[in-house]
Amino acid sequence: MTGVLPIALEEATKVIQALLKAGKEYVGVMRLHGDVPEKRVIEVFSEFQGKIYQTPPFRASVKRALRVRTVYYLEFLEIEGRDILFKVGCEAGTYIRKLVHDIGRAIGCGAHMQELRRIRAGPFTEDSGGVTLHDIIYLYNKWLETKDIKVLRRFIMPMEKALDFLPKVFVKDSAVDAICHGAHLTAPGIAYIESGIKSGDMVAILTLKGEAVALGTATASTEEILKATHGIMVKSERVLMPRGTYPKMWK
Amino acid sequence: MQEIVAPWNIKRELLVKSEGETDPKYGYKPEERPYPDIIRFGIINLDKPPGPSSHEVTAWVKRILGVKHAGHGGTLEPAYN
Lengths: 251, 81
Known about the structure:
heterodimer; A: 7-stranded mixed β-sheet; 6-stranded mixed β-sheet
């Protein structure tokens, strides 16, 4: 399979856990095992949106128990003979080959996946600065020759990009180093916060410059956090910033 | 049927809890990181070619850039080809 594969380097490998849980988009071709009118295909497609049940395939790396996944949308694009071009947006861990197989059974004639390409992994899409292996080799050699940092910026993005779709909490300089040492985020350390956070949500803790400090779990909603004067608001789960980046301002 | 919003279509608003300023002496804006931090805290949006596995491609990138650690976000199964 081809398509979007974000590769994190060095310290940035710590953000991978956020990407693994991020939604994905694919375009693919499913081949029907019989002749079916377009209308029927579109009808069945609509049944596979929202919550769906899947059993992971035999060769999967997870336990083969029925599980629920959300299909955000399933779009019929084109039909040519028995080949259907489709686009799907889904929750992490949705097996597309399995989805195609199940759609084939629902239609009645059966179907299998002919081709698949990932066009999104979380915030990374094929048209937002995607590069090939050849581009990487070319640009890296050009960087070695020129030492022009703009060349590196053409193919290496800040790891913060991976956190684009997580709700964000921005903290004051004085709170940063304590979090880097594993402390939880308390109310006075918070400068800005995004709307829509619920207790239990995964959030990104960032500095006022926009640098990732940690991933954490909110213990209260945006509204509650805005009102709070003390207490733990975000439990740190994964520290992303090395200690000592910001000064120690805690005892 | 209730409309399902994909995570990439959720709009969020930035709200002020208590205004703060940041000291330019510490850290960098992510898009202004100098070398070698740009690599240390960097991520590549790779368009994976068909054939090699996600692990193989990641190992190649690691070797090309001479970095100690590299990891990929979400395996693209070669078996699908």
